[in-house]
């Protein structure tokens, strides 16, 4: 009798994924060079100590080892099965594994959700099967999973043929199977090793977030590198990231999709819908995940992430870099790249300069401490770094080293290694950029745990990303953001909701749709609008008439409006007409709340008018935000800088705008209201002290 | 008797710089590891066949060779002298060299213009000395000059200790001395060699542009890589670039100063004034110089520059890339980076897909041709590339190769090398991005002349930069743009100038300053302004009164204006008052002409209002521009996209705007007018068909 296994998660899941006592390789090839032959070769080559069962109905032996004809023939139930067979057979094999009590099955085959409707049906079937059985599934379309500590090279990725893989302290999780190989080979060239790597494939069951979360108890894993094609399974990723931050394990991500072309490609490549990149960006930041934009920086940033402390909530983060160099031109490249990423290059203070001169260092002038060729001496660099690392004006010290890094590492690189080690013991972070090709020096710095970079772009990208990292926002836990259909409510109902939230809105009066307008409780001119849940886009059907000047015009406007509706939306029977005084502001903005399918509840602020149309000028946060967060958002919208009193211009009421943003974002704490989307467009921003005012609102409820 | 040498330039200069028959090393050290000992060591190590004379008054021998006590003792006059002595001695040594008839002296010492007033005086003295004598001077602060073809490693840069320097076909010229070393070591790691390299130092005499121009006749030099800290000696650089383009020798530049911090650093580092980066960007583009933004791309772009043909004048350039890959994740990185640089990823057309399928290639769907792991076979990649390279829908084909590039280059890299060679013979360009660390494959591709990249950022940067390259604009020759002081002319005088150029401007009437206003030839309301060359900034002294409604108010306004001036600019005696009808437009823009100290005459278009203040939203070209150029400029200003009829908005008269821009830019053809700067702010843009109108103008004349 077969006992159904418990549905694994956490450490038990990590055990079956990364430290299984036994593994079946279903469909293992006799040819060690074939994709399906590689896992056996790699496991044996790396000396994996667990039981490995090649399963192949067509052969007695595989690569010189005994092969079993079927899973049923095995002497015991393997904890982990790597299914290497073709797409059409996967469902049956998965069913067999589940019925036998295998704990985790990893599926290599592609041809699932990414390949069209038939594949999507196949993937759904897999998902159902797994959920019913309790067995966990990695993939489909997974190139496997690797634990370097125990030689579990359970992968078909050719890159793992690499001899002498360096072992490290970070775990790599990737949407792309080929990228785990690319990272391994690029890492090896730099002496950067990994604790483990996983190609998560189609995430039919186990998502990237859940897999990483399962490994959080592993003391050999001190941080995570994520290669993300798009933002998906956001709830699990967010839960993982928050817990990783709590334990002080940095998470660094490289995410595709900055361009429309790549976003589309992610969609066709994986079958997942790609979201907007700036939503993903806000998500990662609010989850405490550092996002790098340069590929090398994904490989190079972990040592710096360990050293740059996260600022306490609400406090400003690090931003000031002190630069020491033996090569002016090389340092200028780093300075340029840091500058365009808004990192401040701080000049040594007068007391620091004093101490440097007292130590015999020829300081020169300028923001960068250029020791020049003459300063390429061990004693000079050592003394300089020791003084710079104690100077309170820097959050980080960057040493840029010229040709000596290649030929004479004892001159300028050795003191960096010595001071970099000291930096680990509590002082501020020290990082190095090597301007020549100097692979040996990079390996030596990496071995010493000193953050080091081979290009100015990666160096600056990494520093900027680590400086931008924040503790995850205090956010309510969320299970999943399912995309149930949502329907609009009327503008009047939307205003009632804004009133409950405390978002100021224009006065309004609603009258029955067919009624004659009464005397108004506010002044003319007014706006007249159809008010109905059936007409969310009022202007498109002639449902808005502006600038109505007096009672006679108002009656006429109501009649025109009814005529427009009858003509352009003949099936619709609106309930009410809404009358509102016309209001002008200093500026118009759009504020919106939305439950994003991947990122969860988000709050957005965007400039109105041409800004919104011709420039992507908006700020996004996970919701809710407090007033401080709302103020940061306002600072991020370029067009709103014209309301800050710049060049004597009239100031807008940005305090009231921050309050309105924070108030609207509170919808994230009221899931029982069922609001999926709430957009105020426009919100009029008045002069300083005169508030803000919503003059239209569209709310969608589940 | 000593004959004064002719002032060398062109090929004769190149001869003395790069192929001197004899070299003196003045101040050569006996210690081959010392900076001043290196040139002798490097020249001997590289087997330079010319005469080399170590000159050292303190020793009979240097590094085992006979040393001469002074220049006067030498058996003949060396063609080139490398002056390695200290800053204080340089002037005397240079004087001696000049008087002996040395053709070129290269000066290593720093401590000149970059180091303050004393150094600037030293540098000026050097310049005077050299101009009087006719001897040419490289430096000061030059790390030397290298010709790899003849072993002339006349440099103190430690990087040239490198054994087996690869020889190449490009010449490197750098503002930074240390960067020639960095490029040599980075190039060597990739099998990228150079024909020669020069560290131009302070350019007291020979500028980077003049040195490069001198080498244009050298058949061994097929292109140029420039490392620029800032734009300086623009006239010489422009003359060189135009001639290089005429001869089909590509010029590729990496220029610092994108950020304010780096611009400042260039200023302190070299004593030169750093200009605005977007002016430099426009300068480089209009000179036909490709600007890369990623350091690796400087090293990697030359093979692609040889293959991407420049479009004929006025024709659109290449923009469509076809992507073939064995790794979806890897290709997505390249696609993302290309996308954010506005390069189009083109899907294979239906006929191309048809041909691929007929050849047995499993094409999949999507814009990128993802052969997947299964396609990592020689025959598949070869057939695919051959078909893609013939497809008319692509301007370039990019092959992105996964792990096989490291372990099995015969699978996917070999066909790229074969097709890449074929591509040279007239077909379209083929480039390769290797996703794993695959140094051997990179070297093999480089040896075959196939453009190849190790990071997605460099790959995309290089492709975008080569696609953006244009034939140099047809520009009048200019000797230099000296910064003579310029003075404003009155608004009325500026309008007369606009009338001559054909730039439309608002009607205006000027009256004597103290006069009572007459009946006006245009309608009220009007603007009243002080009109005087002495008051260029009218609003600051209350010299502008707007919205004056009738004759009584006009008289009062004139009185107020005179009172304002008397109070706020008591010393000034303005000549006239200018009266102008108030005009409103659909939008306000700023158009400006300026003779930039480095870039020469430029024309600028910027959005008015908050756009100009909070966003850098402007377009710059070298002047003059024709209508096509002016239209391109309009397309580059984001705010003006709101005038193109977007979303049903009213169209602005962009035809008239283009005409006004082109007309203003004609100032570049009228140097005899002496206009240094002409700014129209604002220029009102009316509705389509209604023109544009300058309502203020400030002109500075030399």
Question: Can you characterise this structure?
Answer:
Two copies of one chain form a homodimer. Chain A is an alpha/beta fold and 702 residues long. Helix content of chain A is 35%, strand content 21%. Chain A contains 23 helices and 31 strands. Chain A has a seven-stranded mixed beta sheet, with helices on both faces. In chain A, α3 runs parallel beside α4, α12 (328-340) crosses α18 and α22 packs across α23 (654-665). The two termini of chain A are 45 Å apart. Residues 269-274 of chain A have low confidence and may be disordered. Chains A and B meet through α5, α8, α12, β16 and α15 of A and α5, α8, α12, α15 and α21 of B.
Keywords:
alpha/beta, homodimer
If interface size is counted as residues with C-beta under 8 Å from the partner's C-beta, which chains form the largest one?
A-B, 82 and 81 residues
How large is the share of residues in beta strands of chain A? Answer: 15-25%
Ranges of chain A where pLDDT stays below 50 over 5 or more residues in a row are: 269-274
Range of helix content of chain A: 25-40%
Tell me how many strands of chain A there are.
31
Task: Give the overall shape of chain A.
Answer: flat
In round numbers, the mean pLDDT of chain A is 91
Put simply, the count of helices of chain A is 23
Q: How does the helix and strand content of chain A classify structurally?
A: alpha/beta
State the assembly state of the protein chains. Answer: homodimer
Strand order of the largest sheet of chain A: 9-8-11-10-12-13-14
Radius of gyration of chain A: 30 Å
Q: What summary fits the major beta sheet of chain A?
A: 7 strands, mixed
Distance between the termini of chain A: 45 Å
């Amino acid at each position: 009798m077969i006992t159904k296994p418990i549905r694994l998660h956490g450490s038990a899941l990590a055990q079956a994924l990364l430290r299984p006592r036994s593994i079946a390789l279903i469909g293992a090839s006799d040819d060690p060079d074939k994709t399906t032959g590689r896992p056996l070769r790699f496991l044996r080559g790396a000396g994996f100590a667990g039981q490995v069962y090649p399963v192949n109905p067509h052969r007695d032996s595989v690569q010189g080892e005994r092969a079993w004809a079927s899973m049923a023939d095995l002497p015991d139930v393997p904890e982990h099965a790597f299914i290497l067979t073709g797409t059409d057979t996967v469902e049956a094999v998965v069913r067999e594994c589940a019925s036998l009590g295998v704990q985790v099955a990893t599926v290599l085959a592609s041809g699932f959700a990414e390949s069209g409707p038939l594949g999507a049906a196949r993937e759904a079937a897999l998902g159902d099967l797994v959920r019913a059985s309790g067995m966990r599934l990695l993939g489909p379309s997974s190139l496997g999973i690797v634990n370097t500590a125990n030689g579990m090279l359970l992968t078909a990725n050719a890159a793992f043929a690499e001899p002498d893989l360096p072992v490290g302290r970070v775990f790599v999780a990737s949407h792309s199977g080929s990228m785990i190989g690319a990272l391994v080979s690029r890492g090896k060239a730099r002496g950067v090793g990994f604790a483990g790597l996983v190609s998560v494939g189609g995430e039919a069951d186990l998502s990237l977030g859940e897999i990483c979360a399962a490994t959080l108890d592993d003391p050999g894993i001190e941080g995570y590198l994520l290669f993300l094609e798009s933002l998906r399974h956001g709830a699990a990723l967010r839960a993982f990231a928050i817990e990783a931050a709590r334990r002080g394990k940095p998470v660094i991500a490289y995410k595709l999709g900055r361009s429309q072309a790549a976003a589309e490609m992610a969609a066709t490549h994986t079958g997942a819908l790609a979201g907007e990149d700036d939503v993903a960006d806000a998500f990662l930041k609010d989850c405490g995940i550092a996002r790098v934009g340069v590929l090398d920086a994904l490989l190079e940033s972990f040592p710096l992430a360990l050293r740059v402390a996260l600022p306490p909530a609400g406090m400003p983060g690090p931003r000031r870099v002190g630069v020491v160099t033996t090569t002016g031109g090389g340092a200028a490249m780093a300075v340029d790249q840091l500058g365009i990423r808004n990192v401040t290059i701080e000049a040594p203070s007068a007391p620091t300069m004093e101490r440097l001169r007292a130590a015999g260092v020829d300081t020169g002038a300028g923001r960068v401490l250029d020791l020049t060729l003459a300063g390429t001496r061990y004693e000079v660099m050592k003394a300089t770094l020791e003084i710079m690392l104690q100077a309170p004006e820097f959050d980080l010290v960057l040493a840029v080293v010229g040709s000596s890094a290649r030929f004479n590492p004892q001159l300028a690189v050795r003191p960096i290694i010595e001071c970099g080690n000291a930096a680990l013991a509590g002082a501020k972070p020290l990082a190095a950029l090597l301007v020549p090709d100097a692979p040996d020096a990079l390996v030596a710095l990496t071995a010493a745990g000193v953050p080091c970079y081979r290009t100015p772009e990666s160096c600056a990208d990494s520093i900027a990303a680590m400086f931008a990292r924040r503790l995850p926002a205090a956010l309510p836990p969320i299970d999943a953001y399912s995309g149930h259909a949502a329907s609009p409510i009327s503008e009047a109902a939307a205003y009632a909701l804004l009133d409950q939230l405390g978002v100021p809105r224009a006065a309004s009066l609603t009258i029955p749709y067919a009624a004659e307008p009464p005397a108004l409780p506010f002044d003319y001119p007014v706006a007249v609008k159809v008010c109905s849940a059936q007409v969310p886009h009022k202007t498109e059907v002639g449902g808005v008439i502006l600038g109505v000047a007096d009672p006679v015009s108002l009656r006429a406007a109501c009649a025109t409006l009814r005529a427009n509706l009858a003509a352009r939306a003949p099936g619709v029977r609106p309930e009410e007409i809404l009358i509102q005084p016309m209001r002008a502001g200093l500026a118009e903005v759009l504020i919106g709340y939305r439950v994003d399918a991947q990122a969860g509840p988000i709050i957005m602020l965007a400039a109105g008018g041409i800004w919104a149309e011709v420039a992507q000028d908006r700020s996004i946060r996970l919701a809710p935000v407090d007033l401080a967060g709302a103020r940061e958002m306002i600072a991020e919208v370029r067009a709103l800088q014209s309301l800050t009193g710049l060049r004597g211009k009239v100031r807008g009421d940005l305090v009231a705008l921050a309050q309105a943003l924070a108030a609207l974002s509170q919808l994230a704490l009221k899931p029982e209201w069922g609001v999926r989307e709430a957009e105020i467009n426009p919100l009029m921003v008045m002069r300083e002290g005169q508030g803000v005012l919503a003059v239209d609102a569209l709310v969608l409820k589940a």
